[in-house]
Amino acid sequence: MRTLGLAAGLALLTFTLPVSAQDAVPSHPALTDSFYFGLGAFVPKTSTSAQVDSSTLGAGANIDFERAFGMETQKTVPDAFARWRFSDRWRVEAEYFDLNRNGDKVLTQDITWNGVTYTANTEVVSKFNFNDVRASVGYSLFKRKDKEIGVAFGFHIATYNVGVSAAGKGNDTEKILAPLPVFSAYGQFALTDEWAVGGRLDRFSMSYDKYDGNITSMGVDLNYQPFRHMGFGLAYRSLFITFKYAGPGYNATFNQTFQGPLLYLNGSF
Length: 269
What we know:
The model is unreliable at 1-22 (pLDDT under 50). This protein is 10% helix and 67% strand. The protein has a ten-stranded antiparallel beta barrel. A two-stranded antiparallel sheet has the order 6-7.
C-alpha cells in the first residue's frame, strides 16, 4: 500500500508541476527557420534634390525635383527581402525596392541643369528612377531561441537614372551606379510563438575613387505568423542618402530620403 501511495503521489506531483522555463520560451519561425522571405508594398514619402555641374558649361542649380518638376512625393512600390541562416549565428540577407517617377510641368521660374537653362513657362519632362539593393552578412553576438542581437557588414547598391528634357533643349540623362558599403546592427525578439519584432540600423560614410557620400538606413518589423510557414507583417523603412560623383566632364550631387510603411506577406521554412 505504501508503494502504491508513493507512486500516486509522484504521479500527482508530475501533473501539477509548472512548465519549465525552457518550455515556456517563445519559438517564432523568424528566429528559428533557416529560410525567411517576404514580398510587400512599400509606401515611401520621398524628397529629392540634385545638382549637376559641367566643367565646360558651369554650375547648375540645386533642384528640388518634387517641387520643380511636379513629381510624386509618395508612391506605392514593390519591396522584396530574404534571409538565410546558414548556421546558428551566421546569416545572409538581402532586400530590394525600385522607385520610378516621372514629371511633366510648366516651369514657374528659370532652372539651369547641367549647363542648360530651362526658362519659366517652358514645359519640361523629367524622370528620376532609383533602385536599391541591400545585401549583408551578419553574426549574432548574442543568440537564444527567442532573441538575438548582432552586427553585419554589407552594401547598399544604389542605381540612379535621372533625366530632363524640353522642346528645343534635347534630352539630358545621367546614369550612376553607386555601391555603398554599410556597417549594421540588428536585433530580433519573439514575443509569442506567433508574434515577433525586429530592428536594423545601417550606417556608412566614406570616399572612394570618384564617389563621396553617406547613407543611413533603418528598418523596424512587427511580424504575425499564425501559420507554420506563412505570416504577415507591418514594417517601417527609412533611407537617407547623400551622394557626390566627380567624373570626367561633370560633377553630380544627390540628396534623397525615403520614409514610409511596408506591408508584406512572408514565408519561412
